[in-house]
Write a structure and sequence with these properties.
By secondary structure, the chain is of the alpha+beta class. The protein is built from 5 helices and 6 strands, in the order E-E-H-H-H-E-E-E-E-H-H. It has 2 domains: 54 residues, no CATH class; 83 residues, no CATH class. InterPro entries: VTC_domain (IPR018966), VTC_sf (IPR042267). Pfam families: VTC (PF09359). This is VTC domain-containing protein.
């Protein structure tokens, strides 16, 4: 399954809109074939088409990583642990299983992300607030753009 996602952040609150695309549609995008987006009937794909045409958007890099995901129902807490973050080299064709990549993280480094809706339960807050961890914003995409 391949999804196109649009992430937005307003006043620190994040949102995500997503739609599914086929492998064939994805290949068309990677080959700069965009006109089908306009006629797709999907609002997100049509928005992508408008942005490609007006802002000259184009694929830039591949972001590849391993993810462990957990859900804690109280507060709808989503916890992800990302490791082995890699950036594609010389190509943006993420469908290529032989795509050369480079590791962009320090040895043993992981990225812990905690998202929640209404509230962060005290149990989770206590677990993640330790003196050995630092809280910060981190963009895997921005880090990978330094390499490709």
């Amino acid at each position: 399954m391949i999804r196109l996602e649009k992430k937005s952040k307003i006043n620190g609150l994040g949102s995500k809109v997503k739609t599914q695309v086929t492998k064939e549609q994805c290949v068309r995008l990677l080959h700069n074939d965009f006109d089908w987006l306009f006629f797709s009937g999907d609002l997100l794909l049509q928005e992508l088409y408008a942005r490609i045409k007006s802002q000259l958007l184009c694929p830039k890099t591949v972001v590849d990583y391993s993810r462990e995901a957990y859900i804690y129902q109280p507060g709808n807490v989503r916890i992800t642990i990302d490791s082995n973050v890699r950036s594609g080299l010389f190509s943006n064709n993420f469908l290529d299983p032989e795509l050369p990549t480079v590791d962009i993280t320090q040895k043993g480094q992981v990225i812990l992300e905690v998202k929640f809706d209404e509230f962060l339960p005290e149990l989770i807050r206590d677990i993640i607030q330790t003196n050995q961890r630092r809280s910060s914003s981190y963009s895997k995409y921005a880090a990978c753009r330094m390499y490709g």
